[in-house]
Amino acid sequence: xxxxLVAYIExxxxxxxxxxxxxxxxxxxxxxxxxxxxxxxxxxxxxxxxRFQDENADDILYYEMQAGHDFWLTRxxxxxxxxxxxxxxxxxxxxxxxxxxxxxxxxxxxxxGLIYC
Length: 117
Hints:
Helices cover 52% and strands 3% of the residues. By secondary structure, the chain is mainly alpha-helical.
């Protein structure tokens, strides 16, 4: 796994809840990790991340970890992302715009204990 994908997954687990209580429960990263992703979830994440990296390689070169984290946050409308995390305005705007090609993704815990999207 490359740095971009690992950071993307870490942001996904950190910002998603396990829905174990009416209030939302705990962040998934408290009790789950990359190894708990269903194979098809990991495949979808990998495909999206590889495509985004290919399409935006010049802008994210040398900043793969931050870009993976911000890709998850921006595409899912978390109120943080490419526009506020140290990216230049021009690059941040370009990457934020590029995220519009990717629909929002939500993670959930399956009955089998694996994480799906």
